[in-house]
Amino acid sequence: MVPPTGMPADFFQMYLGLWGSIGLALIIALGILTATFVQRKKLGWELVTYIYCTVLPGAIGFIAWRLTRNVDFYMGIFYVTSILLMAFSAMGVFLGIMEFGLMRLLGLFRLGAISRITYYEAILQPFTIIVLGAGIACIGVCARLGFFTYNEDFKMYRDMAASFVCLFSLPVMVFASTKVIDEEIENRTMLTLMSKPVSRTQVVLGKYLGVLMIVLVCVGILGIMAGTCSYLRYFDDMSIDFRLAAPQEHARLIFDNYKATLAFLPGAVLTFLQVATLAAISVAVSTRYGLAVNIATVVLIYIAANLGRYVANAPELPGVVRVAVSGLTYLLPGLGVLDLNQRLVFGDYILGDSDWKLGLPTYGTIWKYVGLATVYAAFYISGVLSFGIALFRTRELS
Questions:
Q1: Number of domains in the chain
Q2: pTM to 2 decimals?
Q3: Confidence at 8, pLDDT banded by 50, 70, 90
Q4: Which domain holds residue 69?
């Protein structure tokens, strides 16, 4: 296609790409919404409402983002609103995958049926909704706070946002894991469950799997919000650099922000593994004790696991104490192994051949580490759950 007379070729290509992507988004959105409306009787109004509430904000956010995607409009009200609309749409899609995909798949199995009930009991609790809402609000509000550092505010915020994902997921996990076993034993609803053709091992594993699903929801929703706000925060803190940078440097700034946003993915997976490991401990404790003991145990183990590796290397301690502490750290979960936030936020990595730098790991290397950490977490969780199953087998339910 030949550009109109007097219009530069690069501007014409950008203009065509802008309206082409907007038109494609409109076609896809209208197609989904029209098909949904035609099949509304078969799908049910709940599913129809979900699709409309997910597709419409996403389409509106994408169109507004494309229209305001210019250096002069970064962090403007329309640009920020469009990104947040797409973020909330992504949260809806994530919940839809959980509800209409993973949970329906789990419901096909006996173990999955127990986990589904546990998941719905936890996610419909007012406490869960309040904590998730508070976490989203804290991440969003802190995105506008200053950290009084020289050209490092966006890194400080990313570190804090990643910590918020873990911080607000932990209480939801503890309350959910305590409710699923100990409270059911106290209310005698466990007797009804055990009258079914299920073993105590299946009960513990099913309950843990349900807690794992609610942890996945918390980490996913809070992680999407943290990644979105971190992406936006970069444009605000680097606004002067964007306005003064040459075109090639401008592209480099955007690429650095893209790399930092991608670094949230392995960090979120490791955060999920941390909370999942502590969830196994919480479920094992709940087979014998109630909420107060469960909270105290999880908090103490969390603190001891994070401080143990530093205390064991302290030269001021006597040798016998250091050996004892070192032995204890092997029994505690290695949360330090499952935490790369400091490295991912304040460090750098290689993304692509054009981004090569001497001595830096590649993005694939980071994911290899995540894979090894997953294997470690799986072995530790298996051991803790085996201990919890042994405790539950000797527990009197009457």
A1: 2
A2: 0.86
A3: very low
A4: 21-90
